[in-house]
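Reopening this one. Same input as before:
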Amino acid sequence: MLANHTKLLYVDNAQLSFIDSLQTLISDHNLPIVLIPELIEGKLKQRLVQLNTAAEQAALILDNKHKLSLVSGGLSVAPEWDKLQRRVVSAGRKSELILQAAKISADSQVLDATAGFGHDSLILASTGAQVLMLEQQPLMALLLLAEQQRMSQQPNWQKLMARLTIINCDALSYFAHLPNNFDEAKRAVNVVYLDPMFPADSYQDSKTGKGAKVGKQMQALHQLAEPPTLAEEQQLLQSAQALVSQSSKKQGRVVVKRPQQAPFLANKAPDESWHNAAVRFDGYFI
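Same output, byte for byte:
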């Protein structure tokens, strides 16, 4: 795989040791990224305008709080897990549809096969469950790894961060390379969670215009990834079901997140759905 040469912009008081830690994350996780550090001259907002005007390739920004952000297509986005603290602390089945659908407990093991910015993984891990996060885009995987490292410095987040494992791999490749004989870690998988990319126009009802609007983070993901084809959706769902069937000692399930107005994944009706005005979680029981 060819290396992705990525410009890393950093403010003058971002310690060089944190840039070194990013390089270590890239090396330890075999990410196909080569960082090109560049000190930000002048104000950050002015530099962002320059980047967007020049239509340069995606760049990373390391600020003075050691937060790593992605700049692409005029957008600046970051996982910003600290902004979810109140939601993570109060997460429960009464307040979170995802937990109603997943029905996991502290001894559960979950595979989040499409991690994105990791927000759903945080909610899943808030139950005490172990969550393996797959992210196919190397830059997004680095954002997640850097955010996990940053949040691990805060004592009240350390236990939650220890329950997350992040791998740069696309879901179909991960499923395809699983051995026939599962080790004990894989045997424990109770839930596979899928939140695959879908066309931007599927967020809203084509007739009424109602539904969820595409947020800034989702817009950024659309610039990095393409929605799966129907054949890929079918393979993704079948592979997820097969993994849960072979590895779970108890009843397991595949949970799929969709916009409320979007069609079922692979056009296959779920066993049960949980929804609100904007989003739907479809459950396929094993």
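So the earlier flakiness isn't reproducible anymore. For the record, The two ends are 36 Å apart (CA to CA).
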